[in-house]
């Protein structure tokens, strides 16, 4: 008799002596324990990706991607020579952007007739082998219209290069916070469309990916825009697998960008999906106001966007002070109230009272539906004003309606 059979018999002897209800509970507990072990193994495989010497790194990366991806990784493997050719030897004329991770170049893969964005990670920078692997795995295994598509990667020698689909309109930051004189500011409707799409990307990571993924670096520069200004989340090097089983959070070192991190994560290192919701609230507030979350060029009391906004959230008469001046007053009054209410809920200090990202998506979708209705109402009112001179009673009715709108949004 094998050892496995002996164990099975022994367990059966114990279970047969238990009441029926206890047996059911034991089976559920055992199943739950096995699932937790499986999830913990998956988590540790991400957390314990070790560093290798240059000579073995390429083989190591290939083995880890094959093992963790379980044969489902479809991203193409490029050679360094192929990507040099695609970017004309990483020519500065093809440079799209630069950050702490390294540089991003526009390239063209001739064999596919495809424009791409080539991110060459800085060998001396923050993002190392682990972050590189996490990004390859997440973007290879998870697919959604609001996540950037990974075309392939290169791990020749000490090179770590990621190849994405090319996003012709750059990042949200380019159109919102670093607007050049040649660019027109985003209108209100486009801002709401981008916010809704970005929230849908987070919703997919939090509630549809298995195991769930916490993005951990939600900010305007990581939201890329395609030719139709549809948003796609990019840069998943800091992403973490979310808590599983009975765990309420993931404990990890605090990473991300100052100002976007949720207060409980910044102070304790305890990461949850609600941490991403807070970061979404920060970016959404940036989209409404046109202000950076931290701007040292402003007066001291206005340098921190969230602290500046908190007292204004509580006074509807000051809502107009929070709108981006570049909109020049072209925004729906009701829509502004609803948008600021969403931002305020996401920015709650207590994580437990923040909404789920799926609730945020629902609220933003409702905002889009009401947009057309409100526009039609505004047009009807304009026609009425043109066709007849309003009496005092008509004026009173309009004022009453406005008062009712304000009251209903409390």
From TrEMBL:
Residues 388-410 have a biased composition (Polar residues). It is an enzyme of class 2 (transferase). It holds the Pfam family Pkinase. ATP binds at residue 119. InterPro entries: Kinase-like_dom_sf (IPR011009), Prot_kinase_dom (IPR000719), Protein_kinase_ATP_BS (IPR017441), Ser/Thr_kinase_AS (IPR008271). It is a lipid-anchor. Keywords: ATP-binding, Cell membrane, Kinase, Lipoprotein, Magnesium, Membrane, Metal-binding, Nucleotide-binding, Serine/threonine-protein kinase, Transferase. GO terms for molecular function: ATP binding; metal ion binding; protein serine/threonine kinase activity. It is found in: Cell membrane. It catalyses: L-seryl-[protein] + ATP = O-phospho-L-seryl-[protein] + ADP + H(+); L-threonyl-[protein] + ATP = O-phospho-L-threonyl-[protein] + ADP + H(+). Residues 24-49, 371-410 are annotated as: Disordered. Its EC number is 2.7.11.1. Its main location: membrane. Residues 90-367 form the Protein kinase domain. The active site is at residue 217. One of its GO terms (cellular component) is plasma membrane. Mg(2+) binds at residues 222, 235. PANTHER family: OS07G0668900 PROTEIN, SERINE_THREONINE-PROTEIN KINASE CDL1-LIKE. Belongs to the protein kinase superfamily. Ser/Thr protein kinase family. This is non-specific serine/threonine protein kinase.
């Amino acid at each position: 008799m094998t050892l496995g059979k002996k164990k099975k018999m022994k367990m059966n002897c114990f279970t047969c002596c238990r009441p029926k209800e206890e047996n059911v509970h034991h089976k559920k507990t055992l199943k739950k324990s096995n699932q937790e072990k499986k999830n913990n193994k998956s988590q540790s495989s991400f957390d314990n990706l070790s560093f290798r010497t240059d000579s073995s790194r390429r083989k190591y990366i290939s083995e880890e991607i094959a093992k963790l991806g379980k044969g489902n990784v479809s991203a193409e493997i490029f050679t360094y020579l192929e990507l040099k050719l695609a970017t004309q030897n990483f020519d500065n004329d093809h440079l799209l952007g630069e950050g702490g991770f390294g540089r991003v170049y526009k390239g063209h893969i001739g064999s596919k007739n495809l424009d791409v964005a080539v991110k060459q990670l800085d060998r001396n920078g923050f993002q190392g082998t682990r972050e590189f692997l996490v990004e390859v795995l997440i973007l290879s295994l998870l697919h959604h219209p609001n996540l950037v598509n990974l075309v392939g990667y290169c791990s020749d020698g000490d090179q770590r290069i990621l190849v994405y689909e090319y996003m012709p309109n750059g990042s949200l930051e380019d159109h919102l916070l670093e607007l050049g004189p040649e660019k027109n500011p985003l209108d209100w409707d486009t801002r709401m469309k981008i916010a809704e799409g970005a929230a849908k990307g987070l919703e997919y990571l939090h509630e549809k990916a298995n195991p769930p993924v916490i993005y951990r670096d939600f900010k305007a520069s990581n939201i890329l825009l395609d030719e139709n200004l549809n948003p796609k989340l990019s840069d998943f090097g800091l992403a973490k697998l979310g808590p599983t089983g009975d765990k309420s959070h993931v404990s990890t070192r605090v990473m991300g960008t100052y100002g976007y991190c949720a207060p409980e994560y910044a102070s304790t290192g305890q990461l949850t999906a609600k941490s991403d919701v807070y970061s979404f609230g920060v970016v959404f507030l940036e989209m409404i106001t046109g202000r950076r979350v931290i701007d040292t060029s402003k007066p001291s009391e206005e340098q921190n966007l969230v602290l500046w906004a908190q007292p204004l959230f509580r006074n509807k008469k000051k809502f107009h002070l929070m709108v981006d001046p570049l909109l020049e007053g072209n925004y729906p009054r009701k829509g502004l109230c609803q948008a600021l209410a969403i931002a305020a809920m996401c920015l709650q200090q207590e994580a437990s009272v923040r909404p789920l990202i799926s609730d945020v998506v629902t609220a933003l979708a409702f905002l889009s539906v009401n947009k057309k209705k409100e526009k039609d109402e505004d047009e009807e009112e304009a026609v009425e004003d043109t066709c007849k001179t309003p009496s005092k009673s008509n004026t009173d009715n309009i004022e009453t309606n406005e008062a009712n709108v304000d009251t209903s949004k409390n």
